[in-house]
Amino acid sequence: MNVPKNTEPLKKHCENHEKCMQMIQAVLDGSATEQEIISFKANMGVCLPCIEGHDLQKSIKEALQQKIEKKCCPESTLSNIRQKLGIASALLVFAAVQITIFKVLLES
Ligand SMILES: [Zn+2]
User: Fold this and answer.
1) Is the sign of the CA dihedral 35, 36, 39, 40 positive or negative?
2) Across all residues in the chain, what is the average pLDDT?
3) Which end of the chain has fewer CB atoms at under 10 Å, N or C?
4) What is the rounded CA–CA span in Å between residue 50 and residue 77?
5) Residue 95 CA to ligand 1 centre (angstroms)
């Protein structure tokens, strides 16, 4: 993803992760305010949990979208998500709702 231009290391812990994830969700949904988009962009260069969280949310959204369009999920997409899920659980970015969505996605 985005590689920060400065040499500061990425944050490994997000002190405000719940808020960050809500912001990321809003940005992906297209319902984010201008202010949210600005802080989202600033955050995406510095905060590793947020970068991972964003990637994951995006993959799920895309996979879900393909399902809605009745295109079959390519196996590569699913294994990609499974892989990211592992990272996500390690980072505790996964909300219960999203796990439910994911289960539906895999089972149906
Ligand atoms: Zn963050």
Assistant:
1) negative
2) 78
3) C
4) 21
5) 15
